Amino acid sequence: MASHIVSAYDDELKYLSRRISEMGGISEQMVAESVRALVHSDTGLAQKVISDDVILDDAERQINEKAIVTIAKRQPMASDLREIMGSIRIAADLERVGDLAKNTAKRVTSVAGSGVPRQLARGLEHLAELALTQLKEVLDVYASRLPEKAKSIRERDDEIDAIYTSLFRELLTYMMEDPRNITPCTHLLFCAKNIERIGDHATNIAETIYYMATGAQPEGERPKDDTTASLGAIAG
């Protein structure tokens, strides 16, 4: 980030960067805690995740307000304008990650009665681990602004999709084996989709960082390996 003659302008851009990093930390924690609450039927932890969502909502609103005021006052050009617009886009993605964690946490009570079978719990934990790794790495790239790293994260999204498809098949099998599994497994299907979509938001952030650094969008389609639509059931 280039420095400016008006130091207050630098402070405004640093504020946006700092708040994005804070949002990233909160969203990571919410995702990890929502999956832990789901796997261990921890309704208290689930309630904490639901409450924490307000913090992310407030942070996004403050980033948007600061960005609008900065654009009005400074009339930024080129890389500065990309920096500000990128902050707005990334804040929106992180707020959405928080919403997905909250939605998972809201289903904990519904699943708590029957519990999560160990095999399915392992699948959910593995999916969450991949999504969280992608989110953490993309937030590290936000700090470094290295476009090639952002591009490589974008190209890894198919790994999460493949694990999600595998888990989707497993859940359908459980539902077909015993009608009593249908209700809890339906909740788990939604939770798995929430986690998979967190990976999509990490990929969105990677694309935004690439644009902020280069002024161009990454070339080519982002890879997808979600084949649940071909299984004859609704995936999202």
Itemize the secondary structure elements and their pairings:
Layout: H1 7-39, H2 43-74, H3 78-106, H4 108-112, H5 118-144, H6 147-154, H7 157-177, H8 182-214
Helix pairs in contact: 1-2, 1-3, 1-5, 2-3, 3-8, 5-6, 5-7, 5-8, 6-8, 7-8
Tell me what the structure shows.
The chain is mainly α and 236 residues long. The chain has one domain (7-231): Methane Monooxygenase Hydroxylase, Chain G, domain 1. Helix content is 80%, strand content 0%. The chain has helices spanning 7-39, 43-74, 78-106, 108-112, 118-144, 147-154, 157-177, 182-214. It is globular.
Q: In CATH, what is the homologous superfamily?
A: Phosphate transport system protein phou homolog 2, domain 2
> What structural class results from the helix and strand content?
mainly alpha
Q: What would you report as the Rg, rounded to the nearest angstrom?
A: 19 Å
What is the makeup of the main sheet? none
Number of domains: 1
Percent of residues in beta strands = under 5%
Query: Roughly what percent helix?
Result: over 70%
How many distinct beta strands?
0
**N-to-C SSE string, H for helix and E for strand:** HHHHHHHH
CATH class descriptor name: Mainly Alpha
> Do you know the CATH architecture?
Up-down Bundle
Mean pLDDT: 91
| Poorly predicted runs of 5 or more residues | 232-236
CATH topology: the name is Methane Monooxygenase Hydroxylase, Chain G, domain 1
What is the molecular shape? globular
Count every helix, treating DSSP H or I runs of 4 or more residues as helices: 8
Distance between the termini: 39 Å
